[in-house]
């Protein structure tokens, strides 16, 4: 009896400093230490890398915080209930409505996958739920404002991003609708803590999403700074100078780097050698499908589903973003 009553508090105390806290301290150390490491090494290229990296992270962090807080609020308190009320009964009409719902019911990529699974379990058509999954991280106000701030010299970039992302979500949603009965969706339910209050779930969601997304932000900032600092300009000019190669390269970067949509515009803007259309492809492909999203969707909806869904999303995003970029940019 004594062991069972005293052991949990000791476990709780041991977990007071765990992986999330270590990640946060690591991010803080990188941000603060980057200013001193490069000058000590006295290497101009490293100083350039440090400057670009710190600038990307500092510019992005306020939008990341705003995005995860808003996403947690929506996913815990509003999104499923409101979306079910506003979505038409006919899935063909529900698909574009779900795309527009991403404006008022935003969510980051990580939050959108479980929300989509929950919507399906509550009776929402898979095509509608998956359209919301694709639209919410890409067309919400936080993302669009961040894009406008990151591209002050390209005022139509946020408009192009909205049009391309919304069109991608709707087209993929209609494709899913056309595959009804033939697209294998397993939709495994996640394990939930039924005893947690809404406040506890809200805090836990904000904490998880911020630490998870900040890690990818730091990684993305490091890669973007490295590309701009260490890759010879001639190589970048060669890649960026060929329209198709530049688009494919930026789509590949978006898939691998796996940035949060609230911060990816600042990373995209740092790739100055690439065309605005290639940067738009980066901004549309990333929130729609990256390596972490592909893994999450395979785990939630099944590997057979992901094998069909992932290539369709990437291909649609690339084509639509290229056409919108040619039109608007």
UniProtKB/TrEMBL annotation:
The chain crosses the membrane at residues 21-38, 50-78, 127-151, 157-177, 210-227, 239-259, 266-289, 309-328. The keyword Magnesium does not apply. Keywords: Cell membrane, Membrane, Transmembrane, Transmembrane helix. It is a multi-pass membrane protein. Signal peptide: none annotated. It is found in: Cell membrane. It comes from the Bacteria. Pfam families: ArsP_1. The keyword Membrane applies. Belongs to the UPF0718 family. This is Permease. It comes from Nocardioides nanhaiensis.
